[in-house]
Every structure is written in C-alpha cells, then in structure tokens.
Amino acid sequence: MTIEDFAALIKTKPYLRRMGKGTLSKRYHMSPEDVVKAKNLANIGKYMPKILIFDIETAPIKAYIWKLWKTDVHLE
Question: Domain residues of the chain, as ranges?
Fold first, then answer.
C-alpha cells in the first residue's frame, strides 16, 4: 500500500485519524514514518480539534474541629 493510498483510506475512515502511528503501522504493514507522512498528506492536523482540559478542584477546604480553644489547621 502506498502512502497516497493510505492517505485516501484515512480520509474515508475517520476512526483511523485517532489511532496512533504504531498501531496503524502494525495493522497495515507500513513504517511509522510512512503513517505520519500519510496523515500529513491527508491534512489531518488541519481538521482535528485541539482540546485542552483543566482539572479544577472546586470542593471547599473545610475542617470541623471540636476543641476548647482556637486551633490552626494546616493543609498537610
């Protein structure tokens, strides 16, 4: 399979766009470099969305302490 044929296959099957170069190279008996060239030829980077995920902890930090006098609570 040539690089151009594989690029056409990637365009017709969108699930191949999410697969890594190692998996695709084993499945289609190509080198990983040829897979990268085919993905670039199919303009995948242009159409794939770039997603950034932030994990923000929104739970309040509270401590309920029952002592006779005021007690400091540290984050540790």
Answer: 3-47
